[in-house]
Structure formats: C-alpha cells, structure tokens
C-alpha cells in the first residue's frame, strides 16, 4: 500500500494522518508528503489523505483556496479514475470545495469553535473506510472545528441517504449538521469526507483506538482489489 498526505499552508494534522497510514501501510517509507504547489502525485499511489488544519488561514470559505491549489487537479483526476481519497476536518471542506463530494461545511450553529470527543454512529459498512465497523455501532472520535455544520439541498440529502452514502452520524450533533451527518461518501464510495478525526483515536496513547479500523479498512480494500 502506497499513500500520500497532501500538505497546505496551515495544515496541522498532516503528521498524525501520516503516522496512522504508516501503521497500516508497512512503514513510513510507504507514505509520501506532497506539497500543495506540486503539480503531480508520486507514481503508484493507492490512497490519498487530505488532513485537518486551517489551510490558507481559512480565508474565504474554509477549504476554498486549498481546493484551487495546483495539486488538487491531480487529486481530482486520481479520484475520477477510481482512486481512494479521504479528507478529515479541513480535508472534508476541501473535498466539497473541489467538487469531489456534495454539500458545504458552514459555521457551527453555536458560532463557536468546538474541540471535544463526540460519539458517532456507523451508518454503513459498504465502503473501505467503514468496512471494519458494524452498522449501528457507536464509536468515540474527537472533533476540532469552527466550520463543521454540514448542509446540502433536499435532493442531495435524499440521494445520500437513498444510495447508502452517509458514513457516520453524530449521536448528538455538536455543530448543527443537517440530519446529524458527520461523514459522507462519493457515488462510488471511494471518496470519503468527515469532520471528526479518526487519526486522533488510532493509538492507545491518544486515548483510544476507535479510529484504527478506519485505516485498516483502507488497507483491506487494497489487498482484496
């Protein structure tokens, strides 16, 4: 398994993501750090992760500037060819701004930054990112965001639910997200975006391991491909 983590000015979860990926990829040598100004991705990639943080200082809409970085053309092309891509927190915002996922992340309903553990309910196992969980299982994962309020028009919501593309829901929405949505999938279920941080629950030293299976599921999918 070969993975890449995209870095933007203001990314602050890139190392956390790289460590979590390295643990299932056979070592750090199989994880590349790619700068946003690069125009090409490393050869032979299996999966791309877009980390949390505050890319470009969260100016304009969160993720809007990052989505127009040179590397994102290559990421979009990779995804459109069936590659696995996931974005966490700011990464989710970037995926919606780049058009790889529908909807938008808006200012939290309480207009305050939220940093705490939340409970998530697993809504589907029909994706590599959720395959190691069970439907209805509740896991604990941290959130840390100011603009995590997911919104989409009624037709998009109907399509997400009908096509089994809601990956996670909050048991109690901390940010006002419509339909309690915490994470969604693309139509082919190879692209995922979620506001919570599974990479921050991928080691006992981080307070829990509920995020480990997120990364193990990606590795499983690549082995069986």
TrEMBL record:
Active-site positions, per UniProt?
89 (nucleophile), 197, 199
Q: How does it assemble?
A: Part of the FGAM synthase complex composed of 1 PurL, 1 PurQ and 2 PurS subunits.
Q: What is its main location?
A: cytoplasm
The GO terms this record gives for MF are: ATP binding; glutaminase activity; phosphoribosylformylglycinamidine synthase activity
Name one cellular component (GO) term.
cytoplasm
Q: Which InterPro entries match?
A: Class_I_gatase-like, PRibForGlyAmidine_synth_PurQ
GO terms under biological process: 'de novo' IMP biosynthetic process
Reaction catalyzed? N(2)-formyl-N(1)-(5-phospho-beta-D-ribosyl)glycinamide + L-glutamine + ATP + H2O = 2-formamido-N(1)-(5-O-phospho-beta-D-ribosyl)acetamidine + L-glutamate + ADP + phosphate + H(+); L-glutamine + H2O = L-glutamate + NH4(+)
Question: Which Gene3D superfamilies does the UniProt record give?
Answer: 3.40.50.880
CDD domains per the UniProt record, alphabetical: GATase1_FGAR_AT
Q: Please state the Enzyme Commission number of this protein.
A: 6.3.5.3, 3.5.1.2
- What name has this protein been given in UniProt? Phosphoribosylformylglycinamidine synthase subunit PurQ
Main function: Part of the phosphoribosylformylglycinamidine synthase complex involved in the purines biosynthetic pathway. Catalyzes the ATP-dependent conversion of formylglycinamide ribonucleotide (FGAR) and glutamine to yield formylglycinamidine ribonucleotide (FGAM) and glutamate. The FGAM synthase complex is composed of three subunits. PurQ produces an ammonia molecule by converting glutamine to glutamate. PurL transfers the ammonia molecule to FGAR to form FGAM in an ATP-dependent manner.
The record's subcellular location field reads: Cytoplasm
The pathway where this protein functions is:
Purine metabolism; IMP biosynthesis via de novo pathway; 5-amino-1-(5-phospho-D-ribosyl)imidazole from N(2)-formyl-N(1)-(5-phospho-D-ribosyl)glycinamide: step 1/2
Kindly name one Pfam family recorded for this protein: GATase_5
Q: Which UniProt keywords apply?
A: ATP-binding, Cytoplasm, Glutamine amidotransferase, Hydrolase, Ligase, Nucleotide-binding, Purine biosynthesis
